[in-house]
Design goal:
Blueprint lengths: L19 E6 L2 E6 H11 L2 E6 L6 E5 L1 H18 L5 E6 L5 H16 L3 E7 L8 H14 L4 E10 L2 E8 L9 H22 L6 H23 L1
Helix pairs in contact: 5-6
Length: about 230
């Protein structure tokens, strides 16, 4: 018990020297003189434990002190287990990273941020490659921009010795902002569907109106496919 860091956080029994206390339990609470509360504790074979010293009057419980400390320790352990542990994942680039390697690391960064971890991306300059530090900064800014739907920049690129690093924190679930590219694509999809709907509604037996509207719908859908291919 002497090694328990919680052991000295609470006043117990004769250490409680106020005039009166409020005793709380399953049956409610009651204010009694401290001497009477100590007698109640002795009669029940437990301790008088002060759990809220700043209240007026201080709040106490009638409980075995060892049991009380065990409950507190268990509660703290449960709260700690519920806390989300945020890790910092590192991603390393060279000042002249190839496109395939870049996309591979971008994919991993998206996974890290989606899982709630932070990302520290850095460019390592070896030897004379430090001359390309501006190129490394552009690379990191591009990386941050490509991750804007998944995370937000906590620290802009900074040169630390032979490394230039940027920190990106995950966005909260459900608040990821759509990129302008995605907004435009969804708008085009809606326009294509509306054009197809209008073409169907305006069908004419002669075929002139049908052919014209079908052509418009076909062009809209073709444009949509081309945009998706470019993305």
């Amino acid at each position: 018990m002497k090694n328990d860091k919680n052991a000295n956080q609470y006043r117990v029994n004769e250490q409680i020297r106020v005039r009166e206390v409020r005793i709380v339990g399953d049956g409610g609470s009651t204010v009694v003189p401290t001497r009477q509360a100590l007698d109640m504790a002795r009669q029940q074979g437990v301790d008088l434990v002060e759990i809220s010293p700043n209240a007026q009057p201080p709040v106490c419980r009638l409980i075995d002190y060892s049991k009380f400390l065990y409950q507190q320790k268990k509660r703290q352990k449960e709260m700690k287990a519920k806390q989300v542990k945020v890790e910092v994942k590192e991603i390393r680039f060279g000042p002249q990273t190839g496109e395939n390697d870049y996309n591979f690391k971008l994919k991993h960064a998206k996974e890290f941020l989606t899982e709630g971890n932070k990302v520290r991306a850095y460019v390592f300059f070896k030897g004379r490659s430090i001359l390309f530090k501006e190129q490394g900064e552009v690379l990191l800014l591009r990386f941050a921009n490509d991750l804007e739907e998944y995370g937000k920049v906590e620290q802009m690129p900074q040169l630390e010795g032979k490394k230039m690093a940027i920190f990106i924190a995950p966005k909260k679930a459900g608040v990821a902002k759509k990129s302008q590219q995605k907004v435009d694509r969804e708008k085009r999809e809606a326009e294509a569907k509306e054009a197809a709907k209008q073409a169907k509604e305006n069908e004419q037996p002669a075929g002139g109106g049908l052919l014209a509207n079908a052509k418009i719908s076909e062009e809209a859908l073709r444009k949509l496919q081309e945009d998706k291919t470019e993305e």
